[in-house]
Amino acid sequence: MNERPDVGRWLTEHHVVMEGDALVCRAPHTALDWTMFEEIIRHPHESDAKQHDACCEPAARHAMTLAQAAPEPIHRRFEVRAQLNPGARAVKFGDDELTYGELDSQADSLAVILQEQGLAPLEVCAVLMPESLAMVRAILAVLKAGGVCLMLDPGEDCAQLAATLRAAGARTVIAQRAYLACLTETDAKVVCCDDDAGGCHAYWPNDCVTDGVSPVSPVCAVCRGGDGDAPTIVFQQHIDVLDRLESMQARAPIGQGDSLLQGAEHAPDEAFWQSLWPLTQGARLVIVPPRERMDLERMRQLIEREHITVMHVNFRG
Length: 317
Fold this sequence. Notes:
Elements: H1 7-13, E1 16-19, E2 22-26, H2 34-42, H3 49-60, H4 66-69, H5 75-84, E3 89-93, E4 96-99, H6 100-116, E5 124-128, H7 133-144, E6 148-151, H8 158-168, E7 172-175, E8 189-192, E9 218-227, E10 230-237, H9 238-251, E11 259-262, H10 270-279, E12 284-287, H11 296-305, E13 310-314
């Protein structure tokens, strides 16, 4: 009988960082152990606490607080990258791709639409769509408009979505047209925005008004679940998300020339920081279509074709 490969050895040699059930694998795409990659996808395995502690050690030494290092809201980091290198590739989903300049312009346009539809600074705006170009555009647009982003799960039923919106006080929702029927039980104002950016260019932006937004302002609302019609909503500040991104950056530094693969199944709110991490560092985000995520051969081809250097992988025991 063949023994399973040594997961601990692979984790160490390929600089994999584990946080919860997500792996952040930092290795050249040409150096990946495909046997181990297949083992992780098909036979999730639980690592011990010592391996986790060893991976987390660099972050524990990260002493400088982001209140000192990053005095501006989180989306400013993306905007600086877009201004410095607008032609750099920013995000890809399937056959569609946007540069930093294109993504910045589209997010600006959607931010203006949100403001004209009544979204005020520091007000919650929900995003209801699967991982896609549209989702990344929507996240940035909410931040640019000064809003607080609430990621909704497209798999939830209408009643639960309505309860989450009420609990968060969200009066605006950005949704793809395919999910409009899921919002029939809410009075929230809906802004449609699909992958082709249809409707997102109705207005060309002037400067978005974000008065009152600072690093200690809330930037995202997270639904922690709850009983019946009373889900619990937790608010995170810009500085909280920046701290998490800085922690990830300390463990697995990325920058221009890196491509991050977002292909693991995870909670909707995790898509928020997983999307912002590469885009605030000048790297490229590659989102795997759901139909390809469990196909090892397609994943292998995509990783080699797109020169993936960082990836998120589910890792559940």
